[in-house]
Amino acid sequence: MKRTLLLYFSFWLLWTYNLTAQEQRIRLEQIDVQHYRFALQLSSESDIIEGQAMIRLVCLQDLDQIDLDLQALEGETGMVVKMVMLNDVVTPFQHQEQRLSISPVSACKAGTEVTLLIEYSGIPQDGLIIGENKFGNRTFFGDNWPDRARHWIPSVDHPSDKATVEWIVTAPNDCQVIANGSLIERTDVSKNMRLTHYKTGVPLPTKVMVIGVAPFAVQHAGDADGIPVSSWVFPENREEGFFDYQPAVEILDWFIDKVGPYPYQKLANVQSKTRYGGMENAGNIFYYENSVTGKQEQNALIAHEIAHQWFGNSASEKSWYHVWLSEGFATYFTHLYLEDNFGRAVLDERLGEDRLRVLRFGRQRSVPVIDTTVTVFTQLLNPNSYQKGGWVLHMLRRQIGDDIFWRGIRNYYEQYKLSNALTSDFRQVMEEVSGQDLRVFFNQWLRKPGYPDLQVQWESVPNKNAVKVTIQQVQDTLFSFPIDIQVANAQMESIGEVTLEVSTTRSSMVIPIQKEHQPETLILDPGTNLLFTANITRKE
């Protein structure tokens, strides 16, 4: 996901998220959803949706109550549940706030599979964005991240409970429907309405389960390793949109080659009403409507969202607090794609920009990347999760080497594809391939706040063709890291280079320099390999 908007939340929403966080662990230990089937009827006259959800799940414990996420009616928005059936038997339920509690006539036994049928209707408060696009046409776009699916579909709205999904959408026939999975059926059911049915072959988290309904121009852009890639744009943007989204074919092919087989049945790139710059829905990425300009300006955004198909969608964070496994990966793998296609200078430039974002954020909020104090999960969409997460991967790559890094990435994805992982799982994979103990590295960069803040003093050593460099760490948390140091002459030519291993508050080193050269400048990290800030002074 590429974040472009700041969100606001009221007190009652914060309270609800706190309550949800407290209950999540217990609920995830009780049930495991296997499959969702959502039959939805959408109208051109009203924002009310009519829904029927079939949910097949396994009881992990003996239960006398099954809890699902679904926003209840509050004012004019929210869902009203009309009926619940469990294994074809009408079943009592309670629906309050964001919780649908179903009480089976007989308790669900551990290990048994049950099927729920839920009929409901209402106006979504969020999650399904109903309105007009910039051309005045009526549209419907799912926008579930992080846990906004509960506003329009009953579900376990958490990334660790994955399930296959099918969508049966009946909508005005002047629109087309895009959704997760393969197209199963498209049938005109009346003069003005059309039924469209999609179904996935692999499990997804709810955060990337969506539909898009709008007037579209659709083009088959090509194939990448047998995967069909298509572009779905508003008809008024047909030529510009097809041109702008065309690079997705080549980008998808690059990721398949570097990481592994693509996990889904198709890739559709969709002009939409998402609140984000891009939203990485599984197999159909939604881009903000002004992403179409006819200038192919969004290749980095396209690469970011395609990276998510592997990291975030398939290999998903098991807990929201580990969202850097999604956003940090997408950020850095965008850089890697651009480096591979346009050279090392592009990587260095983007890392330099990211470093500035991390430093600015750190001055405002000194919190770790894995920040378990957050209760409103959208607050995790910050430079720690994106840019600092990307920097962690870059520094890891430099520490263990390119070949081992890529081997570890492929092993990690292969082990956790279509599943969930925590940061410790990723660390263990990288330790296995590198043979290194990476606990200090992961702990200091991800579980502690901040970054090295250095006071650096250097001076010439008389009659020895050398300079002495002293580095002092002045931040609260002590870091251990290598830093490359370069001494340059007046022409900015290197006359001495060394790598200093820093692990104490104060470190010093004498750097030999070439004869008959006068040192004029000290350059720290000339290769852009370390996340840090520094104040450099020369002692005369």
What does this structure look like?
Helix 5 (324-342) packs antiparallel against helix 6, helix 5 (324-342) crosses helix 7 and helix 8 (402-416) crosses helix 9 (423-434). The chain contains ten helices and 29 strands. It is elongated and about 90 Å long. The model is unreliable at 5-19 (pLDDT under 50). It has 540 residues and is an alpha+beta fold. The chain has an eight-stranded mixed sheet with strand order 5-4-8-2-1-11-14-13, with no helix packed on it. The protein has a five-stranded mixed sheet with strand order 16-17-18-20-19. Helices cover 26% and strands 34% of the residues. The longest helix is centred in the middle third of the chain and has 21 residues, at 344-364. It has four domains: 27-212, Immunoglobulin-like (Sandwich); 216-310, Zincin-like (2-Layer Sandwich), CATH 3.30.2010; 317-330 and 343-447, Neutral Protease, domain 2; 453-538, Aminopeptidase N, middle-beta domain (Immunoglobulin-like), CATH 2.60.40.1840.
